[in-house]
Amino acid sequence: MEPIGPQTDHPDTAAPHGPDPWLARLGRPVDPDLPRTEPDPTAVEELRTILRKSLAKSLSRRGVSDADLDDFAQEATVRVLSRLDNFRGDSRFTTWAISVATRVALTHLRTRQWQARGQDVDADDYLGTRADPGAQRPDQTLEKHAVLEALRRAIHERLTEKQRSALLAELGGAPTHVVAERLGMTRGALYKLTHDARKRLKEALESAGYTDGDVSRALNGASHN
Questions:
Q1: Based on the structure, what is the number of domains in the chain?
Q2: pTM flag (> 0.85)
Q3: What are the φ and ψ backbone dihedral angles of 147, each rounded to 5 degrees?
Q4: pLDDT at site 68
């Protein structure tokens, strides 16, 4: 899946001087001591239209339907309105709002992709996809295979079944909330589980003489200079 980023018709993303006019229109007063007001319905619809147009551009090559775009834009609009206090004014309001919409869309697409796969990621299959030598030199290929083999052994021998499932699911691109739901865990518990799993793998690989850099190069296909 190709990464996507915020798409906007406004090339100037710098924050305007003074409070962004969008905030007052959406119900957040300039004075933080004043209570919130009801957002202007016209402003809300304008925002939804901007977000939908941006998502249509950034997702144009992904075969996303008009109905999906409508849903993503609507959910993003609701999320933006509920998080107005998070906007710090470091950029234009629309730039910030589009970044929120992008995250909403990516989460839905990743979840859909993972659910369509309908199976857990196997360590051998996952590492096998990283073993293609490509244009690397023979010595680099041998080193890469050695690192991946050490990692495969560590995953099988040092991790519990639940740790393997969680870590491999995340490496395979599953969204955190999907992994947590599948394993019947909270996100906090999942974070601790994968943190402990990574720690065990690091200890196993260090004892085998490999560094974090060795593993990163093997997984990402980067070559030595």
A1: 2
A2: no
A3: -65, -45
A4: 92
